[in-house]
Amino acid sequence: MADTGWPGCAKSLKGVILDLCGVLYDSGEGDGVAITGSIEAVKKLKASDLQLRFCTNETQATRDKFVAKLQRLGFDICVSEVFPPAPAAIAVLKERRLRPHLLVHDGLLPEFDSVDKTNPNCVIIGDAAEHFSYQNLNEAFRVLIGLEKPVLFSLGQGRYYKETDGLKLDVGVYMKALEYACDLKAEVIGKPSTTFFQSVLNDMGLQPHEALMIGDDLLNDVGGAQHCGMKGVQVRTGKYRPSDEMHPTVTADGTVDNLAQAVDMILNQRGQ
Amino acid sequence: MADTGWPGCAKSLKGVILDLCGVLYDSGEGDGVAITGSIEAVKKLKASDLQLRFCTNETQATRDKFVAKLQRLGFDICVSEVFPPAPAAIAVLKERRLRPHLLVHDGLLPEFDSVDKTNPNCVIIGDAAEHFSYQNLNEAFRVLIGLEKPVLFSLGQGRYYKETDGLKLDVGVYMKALEYACDLKAEVIGKPSTTFFQSVLNDMGLQPHEALMIGDDLLNDVGGAQHCGMKGVQVRTGKYRPSDEMHPTVTADGTVDNLAQAVDMILNQRGQ
């Protein structure tokens, strides 16, 4: 019988999905800093027979610029391997003929260059950071409250993340704020949405049970992946907090010190 | 049998409680503007045999400055008749020996002059308006997430209010944001808290069924008062929206065009 526990389950894996911020690097001033051992760990995965994708809720930069940053940090990574929420959101806008009011980071705006934003009939919020001013949040609120059927898309629903100078509030916090202000439920594009994870699995041509997600966010990485049928392993880097290991509803399949340790355990199980 | 419906119930009333912003005046540049007929309506209530109190979630100024503003607008009103959340919050801090980190409007800070704010072990948020910056919200978040037992007080839980230049997000929106970020439940001080309404009733020496609340906020004024056992009448001024009259869970005992109309109906029923 196949071992379905961690790390035994690594024997039957066909692909690995990695979160980026908090797993490969810590964001902060400039490009941020690579987490010890993570550059080498990505190299080892690429040299293995496992497929590799990167699934992120990063919305502070276009995919191109974001990947260029990771390359500068020393990671062997290319644009087609990285799945952020913005391209998925643009697909939804086209499908539903929606014109967004954007409350996103300046760095993400070019991603929406081709999108009609006149006379908006929905709002998209991303991790706008300093742009989450009272004035900007009011503006997004007024667009929503003025619509007959207000539609709010949130690029992820994270609570907070860690930068080199401390914890910072993430987009989910402002999603909850606007949900309450307008008495509506936002549609989340990005992790932990099953649709989002499924699009990554589709790209690899794998079934959920053939893939493993490794992230620092217990709810959005681990819980989201598990809800989708994958295994989920949490690293003790990034936004990890010891209380995650006693969470009442989500239990990781495994908890490891960092990505390097996770990759070594996986490859060791596979005799590589 | 006594008429318990509106406006018949006015015959047996002993006191009236008025919300301020959106009922007496619309806030905005400078002192804002009095709502048509409201100055005269307050005069009429004062000349009647009804007790009168003002119950507000106003937290942008100290009670003294706030009342002075209302007097400048032409209202016959004095400090002891006005019940805002900040003095109630200070009583709770003293009782529970808590030291707050404050995320409130600059105008409210003097109210907390006598309060020990060193090494904070709770957070108080009020309607901080422009002070609800990303940086300030992060700061409040970091205080909370660093506490073993995080305690968040919210001075009211309103969604939005109307100023002369449009709708503005209220403190409740940021309360929900911090609740989600820290996975906690805030303690609300102010409307619609039953404790808060009860303190006003105690001051009048009345039972809930002897008093009527008039406000523009269906949930916090009308719903809160009803939950406490009072009648609640909504005015079609301030933040009123036509959809309030079809709300799934809260139905006002009466809906009137403005305070002037409400007062005329009350005094008419009482033959005054």
Count of individual helical segments of chain A: 8
Query: Do you know the CATH topology of the largest domain in chain A?
Result: Rossmann fold
The biggest chain-chain interface is: A-B, 30 and 30 residues
Strand order of the largest sheet of chain A: 5-4-1-12-13-14
Strand content of chain A: 15-25%
Biggest sheet architecture of chain A: 6 strands, parallel
Radius of gyration of chain A, whole Å: 19 Å
> What is the CATH top level name of the largest domain in chain A?
Alpha Beta
* Helical fraction of chain A: 25-40%
* CATH superfamily descriptor of the largest domain in chain A: HAD superfamily/HAD-like
How many β strands of chain A by DSSP?
Answer: 14
CATH architecture of the largest domain in chain A: 3-Layer(aba) Sandwich
Describe the model.
Chains A, B: Keywords: Cytoplasm, Hydrolase, Magnesium, Metal-binding, Nucleus. Chains A, B: Phosphatase that hydrolyzes imidodiphosphate, 3-phosphohistidine and 6-phospholysine. Has broad substrate specificity and can also hydrolyze inorganic diphosphate, but with lower efficiency. Chains A, B: Belongs to the HAD-like hydrolase superfamily. Two copies of one chain form a homodimer. Chain A folds into two domains: 12-84 and 191-269, 3-Layer(aba) Sandwich (Rossmann fold); 96-188, 3-Layer(aba) Sandwich (Rossmann fold). The first copy, chain A, has helices spanning 38-47, 63-72, 85-96, 134-145, 171-182, 194-204, 218-227, 259-269, and strands spanning 15-18, 25-26, 33-34, 51-55, 82-83, 100-103, 122-125, 152-155, 160-163, 166-169, 187-189, 211-215, 231-235, 254-256. By secondary structure, chain A is an alpha/beta fold. Chain A is globular. In chain A, strands 5-4-1-12-13-14 form a six-stranded parallel β-sheet. A four-stranded parallel β-sheet of chain A has the order 6-7-8-11. Chain A has a two-stranded antiparallel sheet with strand order 2-3. The longest helix of chain A has 12 residues, at 85-96. In chain A, strand 4 (51-55), helix 2 (63-72) and strand 5 (82-83) form a beta-alpha-beta unit. In chain A, 32% of the residues lie in helices and 19% in strands. The A-B interface holds A 128-135, 137-138, 141-142, 145, 159-160, 166-169, 172-174, 176-183 and B 128-135, 137-138, 141-142, 145, 159-160, 166-169, 172-174, 176-183.
